[in-house]
Amino acid sequence: MTMKRISLLTIALFTLSSPFAIAGTESFSVGYTKAHDIEPKSFTVKKGDKVHIEINPTDTATGCMSEIMVPGLWDRPQPLVKGKKVVMEFTPQKPGAYKITCAMGVVRGVINVK
Ligand SMILES: [Cu+2]
User: What's the 68 CA to ligand 1 centre distance in angstroms?
Assistant: First the structure.
């Protein structure tokens, strides 16, 4: 029992201290086409986990929906350009339903933080 406690503590300390810890990271691969926008459109993550979202656009977005952001989690709008990978990384600290939007706030999806 003592050994088990020690290993759990070690794992906990490692997770807290290492920025590259595998545990506690949630990765998502997302597509983008003009016809269907982003797919998938709905994500569920745990509060305190590092979230890594990669978008691989196969079209270049234009007009109102040409940029993507997640107000409250990722506030820098990123252009969606064919062949240009977009990476958004953040660690949500508060539970809630965070909208995925264009730069002006039109909703295109949601990230549920539990
Ligand atoms: Cu817009």
Answer: 9
Kindly report, residue by residue over 19-78, the tens digit of the pLDDT. 444 558 999 999 999 999 999 999 999 999 999 999 999 999 999 999 999 999 999 999
Instruction: Kindly give the distance from the C-alpha atom of residue 2 to the centroid of ligand 1, in angstroms, as a whole number.
Output: 56
Q: From the CA of 23, how far away is ligand 1's center (Å)? A: 35
Residue 57: which residues within 8 A CB-CB, separation 6 or more? 31, 32, 33, 80, 81, 82, 83, 84, 86
CATH of 24-113, one of 2.60.40.420, 3.40.50.800, 3.30.70.20, 3.40.50.460: 2.60.40.420
This model's pTM is above 0.85: no
